[in-house]
Structures are given as C-alpha cells and as structure tokens.
Amino acid sequence: AMLVIGNEILSGRTRDANMYFLAGKLTELGIRLREARVVPDIEATIIATVQELSRTYDYVFTSGGIGPTHDDITADCMAKAFGVGIDVHPEARRRLEAHYEAGMLNAARLRMARIPDTATLIDNPVSAAPGFRIGNVMVMAGVPRIFEAMVASVAPSLVGGDKLLSRTVLAFVPEGAVAEDLAALQTEYPDVDMGSYPAFRAGKASTAIVLRSTDKVRLDAAADAMYAIFRRMGGEPFENEIV
Of 34, 77, 107, 168, which alpha carbon lies 20 to 30 A from 241's? Predict the structure, then answer.
C-alpha cells in the first residue's frame, strides 16, 4: 500500500506524482500496489492509518512530512505508531553535516535527522536527509525527485514475485457493444485481469481493453481472443502501451 501524507495534496495545491511512479516501479519488481490513501497532517489519522496498512500489507510506502518545518510530523507519528522513541540519529546527523556548509545545519534542518528507534536509514543521494524503514513501512520524502531516489535506494531490498505482464488492445468499438463478450472472456480467463477503458479518439468512440497476468501464455491467448471479439464487431484492433 501507499500512504500519501500532506494537506497540500488534499487542498489541490500540489499534484501527487509519487503514486504513479511507485506503482510502475513496483510492477517492474513483481509487487502489486493494492491500495493508496491520502491523509492530512493530523497525527491521530496518520498513526491509525499506518497501523492498519502495516497489518494488512507486506509493504507500506509513505511520502511526505519528513522535512524541516513544524508541520512535518511523519517521523514522530511513525515512532508513536510502532511504540518506540525518537531522537537525532548519529549517522543521519553526520550526513547532514557533510551536506551543509559549516554553520548551516540549524535546528530546523536537524529535525530531518530525527529517526525513530529501531528504524534503518533509506539513502537520499539528492539532498542527504534520509528516509527510514521501520518494520514493513518505508518512510520517504514527498518531493518527487527525492522520493524516486529513495525508492531506487530501497528497491534492492524488496522481495517481489513474478512480473505482472500487460497488453492493451484497442478498437473503434463502443464500450457498451463489447461489454457482454468481455464479461464472458473474463469468465474464461479468471487468471487474467481485464479492464475496459472507453474514450473518444479522433472524434470516434473507442474502447481499450487492458489485460494483465503473470502467465504470458494465458495473457497472449486472452489478447488473441479479444482481437477476435473486436473484429467480429467490425472494428480493426491494434495495440498501444498508453491508455
């Protein structure tokens, strides 16, 4: 699961890009992102949500709230969620001291070195201030460039399964026309996830069917069957990576 933390996301001031990036990266690793939530900078909400997600999923990835200002409360919330203390981590402090010029590591910036007890650091090659992992929760920055660097740092330690493969078959056929046959196809291939996405392309109604499976043979068979369905309806199907 992913937990996005920050009032700026919920207010519309900031557009979240991290969930999109994480979902793609996890797919490459054979890990499925099953849920994503966005919560405000409210301590009780953050604590309750991370506890619930941590119990439910193998991994939880958070973004936001580990900066130098008063409203960056994620680290404290994680300490409370796991029932441990929090203090300036010696190695985190060393990294910040090496990053900033002499005299520039003020009290506000030092807040970014406060790490819950028992947590391990997640490298931040962009701006030095580390994220951290506590239990099965990876706590990372909200700034997209830093978040992406932290994901790259933690990725080698994640255990994934078979890679989820995908094919997207499109045709200029209305979604309503294909719905019944698509339902029958899903019944025939229960091990292949199928999603239908209607759109107008070049002023005409079209439907994109996205098929996903870890079994390439089954995936290709389902895609071939989808081609046949579209052709039977008078559409000439084609494939595209983007829906």
Answer: 34
